[in-house]
Design goal:
heterodimer; A: alpha/beta; Pyruvate-ferredoxin Oxidoreductase, domain 3; Rossmann fold; 4 domains; 8-stranded mixed sheet; 25 strands; globular; B: alpha/beta; two-stranded antiparallel sheet; 11 helices
Chain lengths: 625, 302
């Protein structure tokens, strides 16, 4: 199996994203998969952003801390990442004299630590010194004269230099693809697809890529693979949007927040839907004045029978709590897509984290059924988004779908037919189009779920106050006792509905278990294969549904295991805390990371080895820039 | 024995202005022949929030959160624009905790009716000053004279983009009914601010106090063509600031030339009004009717 790590970086606003996308599209055309992870500052222009892209003949789900090819076109990227590169570095020849002390956008503490690596090895602190340092380590460097190349292109096309400059990164992409040995027709085809309607940019980018290709020699000789099935390149935000649309979402309200808004803007841009019965349908997307309006408008929409949702991240979710509580009280099936990022407060707005699991599980005051599911990779995001809409309607209660920033902004190449397999639409107990006379919205029932009619179809009452079967305010103590229980016990129906593999992913069978949830799944899955090479067998238990908690399944899968290692992107191992609360089982060891960056495959490999060797209780990770 | 199973006991204080508003709402609904099949009452929190539970007749009610009635109402209306959505909320609800939604509702101009029960106090929490109480006023429930200045609901509504702005008096149920009927028929966002005594906590702005001061506005409030907009807005705001000695009631501003939010959505989704979210069939035999092939094709790389 090939697994090659390529990193492209540059100032925010200089097209690093576009470059990485085009790279992915070109690599895909040669028959390879990518997994690309994006890191950026909370900033519009100028701060360091980068994409780490894993290229492989098999689907991959994680990145590595080390980089085979570091592709740069500015000096800051060189300084930020030179200590991680193992194979090649592409850099701007004209910037050799620039010292790390001259780069204003780099944080002082990082500049200092990177300079120290060079100085400790007896070098100065310029790009030229980095080149020498790398040569000493056996890393090859490829100088490119970006300025001259861009000058020639600008002359040839007679273009505004400020506009043309955005193609600088494409020189870098061209050189990278040549270095790997990919045929240039792939990148040219990818450029043609993207810039089909903009001939000027098509020409510009093609010239830049061609110049890049000429700047590097084939070193990896990656062979083209034959592909028989269609593949798509998608990020987590888009996959959630697609899952929701496919799952019947017809109303989404949101307030702008990173990294959630891309989902809503994608839905709005694609709000006109095609349907199998050729009926014209559309999704209403409302940008509200705040998250309070976003959640409550979505809840209101559910009362009419429309599948409705909102999408937010930590700060917005905190504001939504009261609305979630009302939805619980009124058995309203609203979906909240919770993009988890670095917290508390504004925290690390553009970085990832898993610190809010317990917030999600306890969202809104009061005791009521909350459905909480957490996706571990891109295909799960798609199916979970549709599943969450089902679960909300089956139990008539709010559902929270957790997607971490790292997956939201990461890209994968996915087999197109892997997405829509066996996704059903289940709407639960619905009375439609007409309800009986004397309809009771909260009628008593065995399973705690009442037949749901929609506003306009029956006379009904909703209230945040405690209420009777009709939905009228009631403070009767006996009424309170049964209807309170109703709102909690109906969660059992969700547990009954879910299949085991929807509740948790159990991979392998070994005496050492990595217990996780969410994005660390990717690094673990990829690490399991790597550890096998050293004859280390690992099992993974990834909890996908936290409420209702799949107690029996988890207890059975952890029974008799020698070691249970909790792997999470937070300090307290919140998923493991829930495990203990629900089952009494405690992990034996922990692999934890809360620096805002995703776990990498090599971090998992090394941590597992360290735990097996020394029984390290808590391995704290700090990889990533 | 089944007792009072369908109706809620009305527990407002004797003499509360809410009774007058309730009668106005009931008469308007009955004269417009609206029932749960074509309308819904949405309310906030406080004494006014209970109104939907007290309405006689076949109507549905959604009693929401403090300050958020407009947000719920917007979700209901935009998911099912065939419903007439009437919101009842308090002055604290609307101009205090929910004032952000109040302003934003004007920007959108969704066709809804907002009826504000304006008695200048927070009744259900024992008479604290509401956002409409004048600076320095000291009702018997306040420990000190009100230290905050008042909001002017009419002026704020006009400047926020409301296209129907009126004021009534709780015990003028005829006017209240007429204004509600107009507001419900109005294309766009409508506010009816209803002056209302709170016999328990507001001993200053009493029924008698209002009766001595209120009079009917005579000015034509309507914008008949766009060139009149500024003049009519100015007139409305001027009338809104007439003051405490003489208090005008009636319609301050009306403008149906501004596109409603539903019209604006129709620009993006041409069949929005005939196939709105609540009526779209999303599944067939358990499978999704949505075809996302074209969306996936757009992201196809090989």
């Amino acid at each position: 199996m090939l697994r090659l790590s390529w990193l492209i970086g540059g100032a925010q606003g200089t097209g690093v994203d576009t470059a990485a996308n085009l790279f992915g599209a070109a690599v895909a055309r040669a028959g390879y998969y990518i997994f690309g992870s994006r890191e950026y500052f909370s900033n519009i222009k100028g701060r360091h952003s980068y994409f780490t892209v894993i290229v492989s003949d098999l689907p991959q789900h994680s990145i590595d801390t080390t980089v085979d090819i570091l592709a740069t076109f500015d000096a800051e990227t060189v300084f930020q990442h030179f200590d991680d590169v193992t194979g090649y570095m592409i850099y701007d020849k004209a910037q050799g004299n620039i010292g790390v002390d001259k780069i204003r956008s780099i944080e002082g503490s990082i500049a200092k630590s990177q300079a120290k690596i060079l100085e400790d090895n007896g070098y100065g602190i310029t790009v030229a010194d980095v080149v020498k340092y790398l040569s000493g380590k056996g890393v090859k460097t490829i100088p490119i004269d970006y300025g001259t190349i861009m000058g020639n292109i600008i002359n040839e096309l007679k273009m505004n230099p400020f506009v043309a400059e955005r193609a600088r990164n494409m020189i870098c992409v061209g050189a990278s693809l040549a270095l790997m040995g990919f045929d240039e027709e792939h990148i040219e085809a990818a450029i043609k697809q993207i810039f089909a309607k903009k001939p000027e940019f098509l020409k510009l980018n093609t010239l830049a890529v061609e110049a890049g290709i000429k700047s590097a020699q084939n070193a990896y000789s990656i062979k083209e693979l034959k592909v028989t099935k269609s593949r798509v390149q998608l990020d987590g935000n888009t996959l959630s949007a697609l899952g929701k649309i496919y799952g019947g979402l017809r109303f989404q309200s949101y307030y702008p927040i990173t990294p959630a808004s891309d989902e809503s803007t994608y839905i709005e841009a694609n709000q006109l839907l095609q349907t199998k019965n050729n009926e014209k349908q559309g999704v209403v997307v409302i940008q509200t004045e705040d998250e309070l309006a976003a959640i409550n408008a979505a809840v209101g929409a559910t009362l009419t029978g429309s599948r409705a949702a909102t999408a937010t991240s930590g700060p917005g979710f905190s504001l939504m709590n009261e609305g979630i509580s009302w939805a619980g009280m009124n058995e309203a099936p609203v979906l909240i897509t919770y993009y988890m990022r670095g917290a508390p407060a504004t925290g690390l707005p553009t970085r990832s984290g898993q610190s809010d699991l317990k917030l999600a599980l306890n969202a809104g005051h009061g005791e009521f059924a909350r459905i909480v599911i957490a996706s571990g990779d891109h295909t799960e995001i798609f199916s979970d988004a549709a599943l969450a809409l089902n679960l909300a309607e089956i139990a008539q209660t709010p559902a929270i779908h957790i997607i971490e920033k790292t997956l939201a902004n990461a890209y994968s190449i996915i087999d197109q037919d892997s997405l829509q397999k066996s996704i059903r639409i289940e709407r639960g107990k619905i009375v439609y189009p007409e309800a009986p006379e004397h309809y009771k919205r909260f009628a008593k029932s065995e399973d705690g779920i009442s037949p749901r009619a929609f506003l306009g179809h029956a006379q009904m009452y909703y209230t945040g106050d405690e209420h009777d079967e009709y939905g009228h305010i009631s403070e009767d103590s006996s009424n309170r006792t049964w209807i309170y229980e109703k709102r909690i016990k109906k969660l059992e129906q969700v547990d009954k509905y879910l299949k085991d593999d929807q509740k948790a992913n159990i991979v392998g069978d070994a005496e050492t278990v990595l217990l996780t949830w969410g994005s660390p799944k990717g690094a673990i899955i990829d690490a399991i294969e790597e550890l096998k090479k050293d004859n280390i067998q690992i099992e993974m238990v990834q909890v996908r549904v936290f409420s209702p908690y799949p107690k029996e399944l988890v207890i059975n899968s952890l029974k008799g295991k020698k070691r249970i290692i909790a792997v999470e992107n937070n300090f307290n191992a919140q998923g493991a805390e829930v495990l203990t609360e629900q089952t009494g089982i405690m992990p034996t060891n922990y692999i934890l990371k809360w620096n805002g960056r995703p776990m990498t495959r090599d971090e998992i490999v090394n941590s597992v080895k360290s735990i097996l060797k020394d029984n390290t209780k808590r391995v704290i990770l700090n990889g990533g820039k | 024995m089944e007792v009072n199973e369908e109706a809620c006991f009305n527990d407002w204080c004797p003499g509360c202005g809410d009774f007058g508003i309730l009668r106005g709402v009931e008469s308007a609904l009955s004269e417009m022949k609206l029932d749960f099949t074509d309308a819904v009452l949405v309310s906030g929190i406080g004494c006014s929030g209970k109104l939907p539970h007290f309405v006689a007749g076949p109507m549905s009610g959604v009693h929401t959160l403090h300050g958020r009635a407009l947000a719920f109402a917007m979700g209901i209306k935009l998911a099912n624009p065939s419903l007439k959505v009437i919101v009842d909320a308090g002055d604290g609800d609307t101009y205090g905790i929910g004032v952000g939604h109040f302003v934003s509702a004007g920007r959108r101009n969704v066709s809804m009716t907002l009826i504000v029960h304006d008695n200048r106090v927070y009744g259900l929490t024992k008479g604290q000053a509401a956002p409409t109480m004048p600076l320095g006023e000291k009702t018997k429930s306040l420990p000190k004279p009100n230290i905050n200045g008042p909001i002017n609901p009419i002026a704020l509504a006009v400047s926020s983009g409301y296209t129907y702005v009126a004021r009534s008096f709780a015990y003028d149920t005829n006017l209240t009914k007429t204004l509600i009927k107009e507001a419900v028929a109005h294309k766009g966002m409508a506010l009816i601010d209803i002056l209302q005594p709170c016999p328990t906590y507001n001993d200053i702005n009493t029924n008698e106090w209002y009766k001595e001061r209120i009079y009917r506005l005579e000015d034509d409030p309507e914008v008949h063509n766009e060139s009149e907009t500024l003049a009519k807005m100015t007139q409305a705001i001027k009338n809104a600031y007439i003051g405490e000695d003489k208090i005008p009631i009636g319609v301050f501003y009306k403008n149906e030339l501004v596109p409603t939010y539903e019209d604006r959505l129709k620009e993006n989704i041409s069949n929005y009004l005939t196939n709105y979210p609540a009526m779209q069939k999303i599944e067939e035999k358990g499978g999704s009717v949505t075809d996302i092939t074209n969306l996936l094709e757009a992201r196809k790389v090989i």
